[in-house]
Amino acid sequence: MTLINVISVAIPIVVAILLGIRQKIDLGDWTKVLPHLIGVINTITSILLLYGLYLIKQKQVERHKKVMSLAFLMGGLFLICYVMYHLTNPSTTYGGEGVIKYIYYFVLISHILLSLVVLPLVLRAYYFALIKEFDLHRKLTKYAFPIWLYVSVTGVIAYLMIKPYY
């Protein structure tokens, strides 16, 4: 649990620092495709989460474990790509006007805030499943799952809304 707590605090701090760094590292133009890859990763994660829910409702526990582990790995891949992008590129400004701009910022801000909440929940839920504390796993996933799904889906929505401005 100590490691989970440290990771849950360290990752948001590192991301905040990265977003504040003005001098970016030049690793080449290939890093410009990372937002699109991140959009794909969030889409795949959303599908995996829904499929994982379906599998556990069907009592297909072993397949559920594999699918949720893959979703967990996609979260790690997302984080790597996100950090790499913001280490190498300035943040993109949303260019929409009117009501759509407020919708975008609502989606983005709720996505960011809930991503901070969901990180320790997902780490704990995954840990409880690994150590076979399934009662604790089930109790926690009642909260972690819908928040994770929301964060994943709003990541896709935010990406689609800002995509024309990359």
Automatic annotation (TrEMBL):
<feature type="transmembrane region" description="Helical">
    <location>
        <begin position="7"/>
        <end position="25"/>
    </location>
</feature>
<feature type="transmembrane region" description="Helical">
    <location>
        <begin position="37"/>
        <end position="56"/>
    </location>
</feature>
<feature type="transmembrane region" description="Helical">
    <location>
        <begin position="102"/>
        <end position="123"/>
    </location>
</feature>
<keyword id="KW-1133">Transmembrane helix</keyword>
<keyword id="KW-0472">Membrane</keyword>
<protein>
    <recommendedName>
        <fullName>DUF420 domain-containing protein</fullName>
    </recommendedName>
</protein>
<dbReference type="Pfam" id="PF04238">
    <property type="entry name" value="DUF420"/>
</dbReference>
<feature type="transmembrane region" description="Helical">
    <location>
        <begin position="68"/>
        <end position="87"/>
    </location>
</feature>
<dbReference type="InterPro" id="IPR007352">
    <property type="entry name" value="DUF420"/>
</dbReference>
<feature type="transmembrane region" description="Helical">
    <location>
        <begin position="143"/>
        <end position="162"/>
    </location>
</feature>
<keyword id="KW-0812">Transmembrane</keyword>
